[in-house]
Amino acid sequence: MTTAYRSRKKKVSIVGAGSVGTAIAYACLIRGSADVLALYDTNAAKVRAEVLDLNHGTQFTPPCSVDGGDDIAVTAGSDLVVVTAGAKQKPGQSRLELAAVNVKIVQTLTEQLLSQSPEAIILFVSNPVDIATYAAVQAAGRPYRHRIFGSGTVLDTARLRFLMASKLGVAVENVHAFIVGEHGDSEIPLWSSATIGGVPATAFVGPSGNTLDSAIRDEVATAVVQSAYQIIEGKGATNLAIGLSSAFMVEVVLRDEQRVLPISTLQNGVHDLEGVCLSLPTLVGGGGAGRVLEVPLSEGEREGLHASARALRDVQDSLGL
After folding, report:
1. Is the distance from CB of 245 to CB of 155 less than 8 angstroms?
2. 121 beta partners
3. pTM, full prediction
4. Which EC class does it fall in (predicted)?
5. Contact 177, 189 (CB under 8 A)
6. What is d(CA 254, CA 4) in angstroms, rounded to the nearest whole number?
7. Which of 56, 146, 183, 271 does the annotation list as catalytic?
């Protein structure tokens, strides 16, 4: 962490005071992710209530001032903006079906947010996040492509690691694996590079003799894809884990940690992918999205990744992006 990133106060704005936006704000508050939090939402009564509720808990958290309102000017001077605004995913609805509605919101918001905070990093969480991120980069222009990125498959990767750890009976911290591609139905687990404590995941034997054979791997991959649908069916929205993962990403940027995360960025040639936003392991730090890493892929993984890219491009084309 550089001295510059330690010394001055950091402001994070969150756009959208719904279940996801407030979960992110709450996670940032209790984790001490930022010095200043600002919530923006067009629903004035809702955002005022959420700000009041958060402020009532500040005695019990690391120091942080919390403000908010229905005027986008409340976001001015942000170091990082997290965008959650958009139509909510309904039970049984795919993330890509949300695209047409949310792209228009994203395009307008991107220009407004950059006018308030010209130097800000913008993290998109709104679904479908890959399409939203692509629309935002197009609206802002390619010079902004490192400063605009999506949450991508960071949460999907956490789900994968949790399930792998559960199946093998080991601590999740020892599991290293990635989900890549679309944040959605065509996403790909990279089994060929997954490891447990340095041992290839496909060869690892757990304390009780557990292994990740092909049937278990298929079961885990399906469970990762179905996780969001299952949660939405049961309680209407996924919010707690995305709140925590978003707060983590905020910290990685504000503390210039240079971590490798599977965020969604505009691809520029790695694995022969261009003109689409999707997730690959990427260095993330104070400048936003850095170098995309060319992780070795099996032939099947490469084919799956390109199929995921084609699915996203088809949606982009249908929306005239």
Report:
1. yes
2. 80
3. 0.93
4. oxidoreductase
5. yes
6. 10
7. 183
- Is 78 labelled as part of a ligand binding site? no
C-alpha span between 94 and 194 (Å, rounded): 27
Amino acid letter, residue 152: G
Read off the pLDDT of residues 233-271 as tens digits, 9 standing for 90 and up: 999 889 999 999 999 999 999 999 999 999 999 999 999
Q: Are 120 and 78 in contact (CB under 8 A)?
A: yes
pLDDT tens digits, residue range 74-133? Answer: 999 999 999 998 877 677 766 567 777 788 889 999 999 999 999 999 999 998 999 999
- Domains (range + CATH), the chain: 3-150 (3.40.50.720), 154-318 (3.90.110.10)
> Cis ω on the peptide bond leading into residue 281 (within 30° of 0)?
no
The residue with greater pLDDT, 94 or 208, is 208
Place of tokens 């079906």: 97
Question: Is 306 a known active-site residue?
Answer: no
129 in a labelled binding site: yes
115 has binding-site annotation: no
Rounded Cα gap, residues 31 and 116, in angstroms: 26
Cβ-contact 263, 284 below 8 angstroms: yes
